Request: fold
Amino acid sequence: MTSKTCKVAAYAILFCLILSGCSEIHENDADVPVRPTSEVQDEAEEISSSILEILSLKAKATESGAMISPCEEGDYRAHHPWGVYGPAAKDLVEAMDRLRSQLPKKGWKIVKDGLDDSQAKSPQIVADSADGEFSVDARFHDRQNDDPAQLEVTVQSACFRLGSRSTS
Reply:
């Protein structure tokens, strides 16, 4: 692989991570940790549970498990999208405030706190774990038409490798 190809690949990875809300990257192929998919999925779900505890809402939550999706060259990442709905919009806004104050106390670094890029300009908080292996993206969607207000949360891992690969 030429130096130019490496630079293009690095920029492509950085661009994808910025779009996905994950700010931590592994700078070269050798830095990608090896972990079993089930372990990373379980950790994503545990993080989701801890986020739900911080939100401290009496609400209905969507039921979904963490999923695996591909990264570069056979590596993978876990992502766990879910949401809560039912409480009044003001209660969901207060839950976002709890996230804003509690995530840093639990070792998370808030990397974005503002409006998302959607047409609705929904309030969004993005935070990275201290070890850089997970990112949380929380968005508040106010009531629209017949849809109730809701909080949408996605927990996403960095890229991991299933096992060792030849580097030749």
Observations:
- Residues 1-27, 164-168 have pLDDT under 50 and may be disordered.
- The helical segments are 3-20, 37-55, 89-105.
